[in-house]
Amino acid sequence: MVSFPNCKINLGLHITEKRADGYHNLETIFYPINLKDVIEIIHSKKFEFNISGLKVDGNESDNLCSKAYHLLKKDFPSLPDIKIWLHKHIPMGAGLGGGSADGAFTLKLINDRFHLNLSSNQLIGYASQLGSDCPFFILNKPSFATGRGEILELINLDLSDYSFVLIYPGIHISTNWAFSQIKPHSSTKNLKEIIQLPTELWKQELKNDFEEPVLKKYAELNSIKEKLYEAGALYVSMTGSGSAFYGIFKKNNVPAISLSNNFKTFVA
């Protein structure tokens, strides 16, 4: 059985509070984007996990796909051994949530393949044990997120009339470093109200708190925003804690964009 985990972008991202458990409370809007990995699971004589495509650092046992299987195996001991094949296409360390999507989609894939009959709420519970962004990919619909990102409220937001240009500069941003650069603050802007404004007005209103420190440390990334706006983007922002940026264009009106050869460009 095969599944195609997609990534997400953040439309606005405010860090509102440092929590007693060391995490941060935030508010953001997650929006699913049509840039995808591939996951296949098949029966096997023993559990196996294989990766192709983009290089993934770290031990395979720490990958969220592997963790998702073992998390379910603990509660469903009769779950058979499987082989998981993950083909990586979504850049890592980019703020696109590719790893979180892989873990969440593995949960859904195993649930469907082996008829575990887990509800969406139960899958969200498992996903929250994998990571803060994972629950979103169970729903995989535009959502207003609070808490660590795991408290989700579905919202009415349709950007199907637009195209998205994603630029990945090949810089891995440490999430811990990114959070260390932010001074939590109460937001004066209501994200759910801002995204109902015309997209052309988002430039003045819709902000990602991580963008300022990342651009300060990596000044070369400023050229991405400049080039995307020069090309006619209605709105440009970094997503998550970076380092990927996205530009929103009118549908099928994406011009050629000249950037450094080290920057990878995706259109979704």
Topology summary:
Elements: E1 2-3, E2 6-18, E3 24-36, E4 38-43, E5 48-53, H1 64-75, E6 82-88, H2 98-113, H3 120-130, H4 134-139, E7 143-146, E8 151-154, E9 162-168, H5 175-180, H6 191-194, H7 202-205, H8 211-217, H9 222-230, E10 235-238, E11 245-250, E12 264-267
Parallel strand pairs: 5-6
Antiparallel strand pairs: 1-4, 2-3, 3-7, 4-6, 7-8, 9-11, 9-12, 10-11
Helix pairs in contact: 1-2, 2-3
Q: What is the element string, with H for helices and E for strands? A: EEEEEHEHHHEEEHHHHHEEE
Integer count of domains: 2
Number of helices: 9
Overall geometric form: globular
Oligomeric description of these chains: single chain
**Proportion of strand residues:** 25-35%
Number of strands: 12
Helical residue percent band: 25-40%
What is the CATH first-level class name of the largest domain?
A: Alpha Beta
The end-to-end distance, rounded to whole angstroms, is: 25 Å
Radius of gyration (Å): 19 Å
Uncertain runs are none
Structural class, from secondary structure content?
A: alpha+beta
Estimate the mean pLDDT confidence: 94
What name is given to the CATH topology of the largest domain? Ribosomal Protein S5, domain 2
The CATH architecture of the largest domain is 2-Layer Sandwich
Strand order of the largest sheet: 1-4-6-5
Sheet with the most strands?
A: 4 strands, mixed
